[in-house]
Predict the 3D structure of the following.
Amino acid sequence: MAVGDIIYLTTLTCASQHACAVARNPQKRRDGPVDRLSPISSSRFRNIDVVASPDSTKYPLTVGDQRGRRERRHRCSPQSERETVFGDLVPLRVSLPCLRRFLLLIRVSVVASRAGVLLIGTAAYSRLLTCPSRRLPRLFSVPLQERSVWIVAGHRTGRCLEGEIDRILALFRMPLMNFFSVKQIVGARYPPAAAKTDTPKKKDAEFHDYASSVSDVWDAGISVDNTLVNTSAAKVIQMHANGATSKNDIVMPNCNPHPVPSKNNKTRAMQMLAMQSNPPVRPTNTTASNTPLPASGIYPRLGGDTSTASSSVPAAPRGGPTPLETADQNRFHRLSRMLNNDDAIDMEQLRENCWMGIPHALRPDAWRILSGYVPTHAARREVTLNKKRDDYWKFVEQYFHTRYDEQHHETFRQISIDVPRMSPLIPLFQQKAVQEIFERVLYIWAVRHPASGYVQGINDLVTPFFVVFLSEHISPDVDVGSFEVTQLAKAKVDLVEADSFWCVTALLDTIQDNYTFAQPGIQRKVADLKDLLSRVDPVLYKHLENNQVEFLQFAFRWMNNLLMREIPLRATIRLWDTYLSELSGFSEFHTYVCAAFLRLWSKQLLAEADFQGIMLLLQSLPTQSWTDKQICELTADAFSLMSVFHGAKNHLNNLTPR
Amino acid sequence: MEAGTSDSPVFKVVLLGEGAVGKSSILLRYIENKFNNKHLSTTQASFATRKLTVNGKTVELNIWDTAGQEKYHSLGPIYYRGSQGAMLIYDITDTRSFERIKNWVRELQEVLKGTATLLVVGNKVDLDATRQIQRETAEEYAKSVGALYAECSAKENIDIDALFETITKAMMAKASEVSTLNRGASLRRSTSRRTIQVSDDTDTEAAPKKKCC
C-alpha cells in the first residue's frame, strides 16, 4: 500500500455500506446491494489520488496480523456475508463503547501503512469523532500524512447534513483540498433492504436497538449552521492554498534551524558529532525586536532564528482564524483562566489542556504545576514557591562547598567537564554565569541522589527547564538562546536556578532507574522499544536485525537523553508539554514516542543497505526543522500506540511468534 | 569480515578512554579534519566510517566512539565485541585518565583474548608543558600488555592519520596471520600456544588461539 491509497472503512449499517459502494460506483445506486465493487470512478472522487484499493486480506485494518483476535477482543466481528459482497471492503461492527478503542486501532494501522482513509459512518460516529471531550480528538486533529483523508459522513438518518463533510474536513484540517467538492453521498438513503427482510441475529438486533434508541441524541448535536460551515471550510481551503501553517505560529518557539547543507550522511553524522564548528551567523536582535508579534511572540525563541523575518509576516492574509486555530485559542484561553484563577486547579483538566502544547506565556506556570513542584491551589502556591526556593539555596550553602572533598570531587569533576560541552550552538550555554548555575544545580542534585549520582546526559535535561523559566523574565521578542544572563537582576536568575533545580528533580524522580548502576531503566525501555517495533513495523525490525543493528546501539541515547540529542531544543520543549501532561510521560510514554519516532524513518532506513548506512542515518536524523506539526503527529502516534499496547504486552506475546 | 557490503575488508575499531580525553575530537579530526573545542559530550557512543589505503590495500574502518564516563562502562561490550582494534586513549596531562585505560586493557584482554589489536594513545601532546605521564612510562606499559603506543594531538592535528594507519596495519597483519594459521595447520595451533606479542614495526606475532570450550 502506498501513500495515496485509500482504505475504506465503513460502519455497520447497510446504508453506510451501500453509500460506500455508491460512492465508488454511482451506476449501481439504484440496483440494490452491489455485488462487485469497481475501483473508484465516481466523478466525486476523481481528484483523489487513488492508486489502488487495498486488499483486505493483505492489509488487515487492525494491528499486525492479529485482526481476528483483536476484533474479538473489542467485540468487533466481521460480517462474513458482507465481506464477500464488498470484496475489498472491510466492514467491521463496532459497538459505540468500544469505538474509541477501535478508532485507535484503525489509526495505528493507517499510520503504519501511510494510506489515506475514507471513513463513512453514521452521524453518531462523526459526532464522536468531533466531540471535543476526552482525548480522542487529539488523534484526529492532526493530519496523518500529507495525503491522508478522513471523511466522516453522517447520513444514517438520510437527512444528513449539507456541509457536514466540509465541516469535518475543516475540523480535521484536511490537507487535500481537492476534496472540497465532496458532498453528501446520496446513496446513503438507500433503504437497507437486506437487513429488514432478514431476521436479524440477536446481536445485530441488540445493536440496532441500541443504535436507534440513542440516535436522536447523536443527531441532535449535529445541526450545523450552513453559513458557518461554508465560511470555515473556505478558510481552511484558503489556508492550505497559501501553504500557511497555522498552529505552528502559535505553538512553537520562533526559531527556525538551519537545514543541514550536506546530503552526505557521513558528513552529517560528523556535523552532529561536532555540532558544527562554525556557528551560523545570526541576525542581530534589533531587526527582530521591532515587530513583536501576536502569535509568534507567545513562544520562547531559541537557537538561530534566521527566519524571524519570514515568520514575522502577520497572520492577516489568511483572513481570520480557522476552526482549529479557534480550538487552540479556546484551549489557550481556558488554560490562562485556569492558571490565573484563585481556586485550586483540576490537575486532570490542566493535563488535558496542556497535552497539545502550552503557549509561551503560560508555560512556566504550567510546567511548575504539572511537575508537582507547586501546589494546585493558588493561595498556597506563592508560599510554597518561596519556601522551596529558599530550600534550594540552603542546599547550596550546605553542600556546594563539599565539591572538592575526596568523596565528591569525582562527581564535580565530571560535571565541570560536561557543562561547558552542552548545546554548543546556543550561545546562552556558553556564558560563564550559566555554566556555574548548571554546575550548582547538577552537583546539588547529584549529592542528594547518591543512588545514581550524576550521569552524563542529565545535564541536558536541565536545559529545557532553564530556558523556559528564564523566558519568564525576559521580553518575548528577545531570543532566549542568545540572551545575556548578566543583564538580568541576580535575584531573578536565582529564581530561575531554583525552579530549574526542583523541576528537574521532579523529572528525574520519575526516571531514576535510568541512571542507577548499570542503568536498568534504560535497558528495560530499550527492550520494550524493540518489542514494540517488532509488532508495529516488522519489516523495519527485520531490516535492522539483518544488518546487525542492535537497538542498544542507538536507542540507549534516546532513552538516556530523552531524545534531546535527536530533535532541536525548541521541539523538545514542545514535546515536554506533552510529557508533563502525561501521568508517566518521561518514563512510560517516552518509550512509545521513541517507537513512533523510529518508525517515522522507516522508509529511509529501509533504503539503507548496510549497517554503516543505517547507523549513520540514525545518528543524524533530519529533524532540524521540526515544528509543532511534527511533534503533534509524533505524540498522537505514540498515544495511539500506547493505547493499544500499554498493558497488553502479554496478550500480544501469545499471538506473535517471537 | 562479513559486516561490510563493499569489496574492501572492514575492520571494526573502538575508541575507549576516560571522559574528555579527546576521543570524539580524534575521530572528528580524522574523519573531517576539523577541531572543535566545544562539542557535545558523547553519551553512549557514536559511529563513523572511513576508507583508507595501507600498503596498497584499501580497507574500511568502522569506528565506534564511546562515552567516557565510568557510568557507561557497562555498555562497553556492545561496542568492543567483535572489534579487530581498540584505541585506548588518555590525556597526557591527566594521570587518572592513564589509570583508566589500564582497566580497559584488562577487560579487553579478558574478553577479546588477544584477537584485537590494542593501541594506547596519548592525546593532547600540544599541552606538553603540563605533561603528567612521561612517554617512556606509557610506552613501557603498552609494551608490557602487548599493545602498540602512539601520541598525537587532535587539536594541532599531529599524527592523527598515523594513528589509524598504525592500527590498521597491525590489524591487517593480524588478520592475514590468523587466516594463514587457519589455512596452515590446525596442528600447529593446538601445539604451540603463544602469548601475544605485538611490536611497533607491525610485525605481529600470531594471535593466541585458546581452545574454545
Observations:
- Chain B is about 35% helix and 20% strand.
- The helical segments of chain B are 23-32, 76-80, 95-112, 135-144, 160-184, 186-191.
